[in-house]
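A further point concerns the way the authors explain their paired sequence and structure data. An entry of this sort, consisting of the sequence and the corresponding backbone structure tokens, reads as follows:
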Amino acid sequence: MNNNYFSEIIEGNLSQWTGQCWKWDVMPTFGSLVITSHGSLQIFGIVNSIKTGSMDPLRFPTPYQKTEEELLREQPQIFEFLQTTFTCITIGYEENGKVFYHLPGKPPKIHAFIGNASPEQCQQFFASEQFLHLLFNLQLSNLDELLLALLKNLVEKKALNKTNFHSFIETFSMLCKNDYQKLKIFLQRSNHLFIE
């Protein structure tokens, strides 16, 4: 089994899917690129939200005023009822070695495994900014936060350079209908990414 896998799909449609982590405290990063498979398709998703809570609707976490280490030692059973789920937005897929920046013909299957994309897969997928069209079409309330997190993840994986970033900003600007204020604020907030 691929070591990058850490969860599986519990709900999905063409444009987004929900994964449940196998361990409640091993989860993807907000804005990271993850992959799942459906037959010959490799479907790419960007992590849009993450939630940890009780899997039992009748039991809820309560504060104990103890550290996690103390709780693990004294009451390890309370962690058995925790689960972490996350949602991903489909931003493209790969089929027969070719990347497509639109929705696949089928949603990912329930119980399909989800794994982190490798740095090489990130470089290959984000060589183009075409994925931005899918994100803008969804009119997400947290779009800027998601894009900033995505850019940070790409810089950390060395999958984004200044040239790619400029292309990203050009497409971002067009999709924002050249909204100068929005673009200026986004650039100010992303400015730190390339400061060494």
User: Anything to note?
Assistant: The two ends are 37 Å apart (CA to CA). Strands lie at 5-12, 16-21, 33-38, 41-54, 82-95, 98-100, 113-116. DSSP finds six helices and seven strands in the chain.
